[in-house]
């Protein structure tokens, strides 16, 4: 017969979540890993069923009943919190009263490792739980790396998309972005106003002071347009000194006239560059999508072009609304 101390030492090595109980269910010895789950509540000398609640088999209510059960397998959980669920196997001790009950976490091992801060030292070296933990850790690391890569890719895609729709000099939208916005407005059948703005005297600034001055003027003009429009309006640079402003849902002519007049007034103000004042002005043509029966943004843009032509034809710093040609009698 193996001395009890030798048996305990053997079990600590092979299955550190063991419990040795006598025929009454009183715990004689407990493995260090199992005791670690309740560090402030020594299990020795307590009744096994005072600590654990049997889930299966339901018909058995005593440890002595477990010892004679045909399969010896059981499922149980702690009676206090956290109520970790455990699996067990009962092995009656030959020539001794009592039994060894070997416990394990089963599928709850991941929660147990987290809840009880378990390490590889708390498991038998042959326990498959160690391999499972390594696999979970490797999977978590791989998923985190994949998530990080996806975030970087999404960021790169968004940045590339933003660059594809942005005028690099002014930071405004470009012609491609304008086309995309107008397509969306037409598809959603949203009304909008469109201003076509053209800078006067910009070429003379470029010719007289150079491209650096011209770039500076364009950037300042873009800033003014952004300041005079709403956050959900679209301001696009579609040519060297040509801009389109799209106002979703806006069709009040008085409001649009006010915006145009503020733009013209501010763009007339001298723009300082390298101790020199750059003088420009602007003409604006405006068309409303509601002026057309069919929803085609090309018609609205063409109408704004015509209104801009009328503004330029009558001088500088002017704003003109598109008016449909009078029908012949």
Structure at a glance:
The protein has 329 residues and is of the alpha+beta class. The chain has helices spanning 4-14, 32-36, 48-51, 63-67, 109-116, 128-164, 175-187, 202-209, 211-227, 253-268, 297-313; strands at 18-21, 27-30, 52-56, 73-78, 85-92, 99-104, 192-200, 234-237, 242-248, 271-273, 276-278, 281-288, 319-321.
Topology:
Layout: H1 4-14, E1 18-21, E2 27-30, H2 32-36, H3 48-51, E3 52-56, H4 63-67, E4 73-78, E5 85-92, E6 99-104, H5 109-116, H6 128-164, H7 175-187, E7 192-200, H8 202-209, H9 211-227, E8 234-237, E9 242-248, H10 253-268, E10 271-273, E11 276-278, E12 281-288, H11 297-313, E13 319-321
Parallel strand pairs: 12-13
Antiparallel strand pairs: 1-2, 1-6, 3-4, 4-5, 5-6, 7-9, 7-12, 8-9, 10-11
Features:
329 residues; rod-shaped; 11 helices; alpha+beta; single chain
- How would you classify the helix and strand content by structural class? alpha+beta
Distance from N terminus to C terminus (CA atoms, Å) equals 123 Å
Radius of gyration using CA atoms only: 41 Å
Shape: rod-shaped
Order of strands in the sheet with most strands = 2-1-6-5-4-3
Low-pLDDT stretches = none
- What is the beta-strand fraction? 15-25%
> How many strands in all?
13
Number of helices: 11
Q: Give the topology string: H per helix, E per strand.
A: HEEHHEHEEEHHHEHHEEHEEEHE
- How much helicity do the residues have? 40-55%
Mean pLDDT over all positions: 86
Largest sheet: 6 strands, antiparallel
Can you characterise this structure?
With 329 residues, the protein is α+β, with helices and mostly antiparallel strands. It contains 11 helices and 13 strands. The chain has helices at residues 4-14, 32-36, 48-51, 63-67, 109-116, 128-164, 175-187, 202-209, 211-227, 253-268, 297-313; strands at 18-21, 27-30, 52-56, 73-78, 85-92, 99-104, 192-200, 234-237, 242-248, 271-273, 276-278, 281-288, 319-321. It has a 6-stranded antiparallel sheet. The protein has a 5-stranded mixed sheet with strand order 8-9-7-12-13, with helices on both faces. Strands 10-11 form a two-stranded antiparallel sheet. Helix 8 packs antiparallel against helix 9 (211-227). The chain is rod-shaped, with a radius of gyration of 41 Å. The N and C termini lie far apart (123 Å). 29% of the residues are buried.
